[in-house]
């Protein structure tokens, strides 16, 4: 049984359903609301918090309330002070116990703490979905009756920056079977609104799980020179071997990749190659062109693919010479996946693995419009990435999807994956 299920079972054992029914019935009979400020949930939250604080206070003093003073005792109870904390059920006013020596440091609701952790998590979750600070403040006020200022929300979201820096610089695995790289453009108001590329590297681990290796904000277009810096940083963090790297195609990138990892096979995304082909063709010919190109990228070998491509050139080269040139220029980066079994082919022929992440990021970024600076943009993207798989079901799907491919990878690359686990 998982820890979550154990926790749920324990909670059921503690909570008496009859008592809950009685409390709800009493509240309704007395005209008390169930939620909102002054409601039953807020009152229960207050009593639970105060009871827990009294328990902490007793542990700190070492004697129960009302016990006779022992000789030599130096510290005593000294009343309470009122404090309002923002909770998930709204603002709650609690009485915090004090001691005469002033040494009591409560842990459940710390000194100067005005929000419980659930509120911070709620703010971060809403921010990850792209809501502005004003929208989050309005949402909390409307739904929970909780007044949280925009500056407080900014402080909460800024708190993730330390964690982001640690995540960005964490040590990496020695071997990643495949790394997918791409970038998402965000709008930053730097004097005037301009596009900034946020670079991302997504890896598949030797166990078949997804690992986003990092996020980087560039200062211009998506360039191979900047990618060289990014890939060098990834290697310096411990990633010594990457058998395959997949990208949507960028001039000069294969040289940058092989500068960092000489044995890495560079693969361009076939889906992007097809999409780029359609840009040079009339819409009514898209379906015919897709059908004519399919034998090229599904060929059994590079030689067979070249034969099919020559046939495509004869059929369509006169009408769309730009498509033929596009495939000729990308041929060296297109053909590597054809040397592998179908288990590997269907995984590395496309950047869909990273495109699904990009779609989530773009959704959050579009909702915000533009950002005041690079740091704000990076924070939004980071929050979106961290909230990708809250239930863990995505991790399971990835593992199942990559199981057969990883076995084929280890054979195709002479045990480099197995060596990386040692």
UniProtKB/TrEMBL annotation:
The keyword Transmembrane helix does not apply. Required for the transposition of the insertion element. Residues 54-77 have a biased composition (Basic and acidic residues). Keywords: DNA recombination, DNA-binding, Transposable element, Transposition. It comes from Streptomyces yanii. Residues 54-80 are annotated as: Disordered. Belongs to the transposase mutator family. This is Mutator family transposase. InterPro entries: Transposase_mutator.
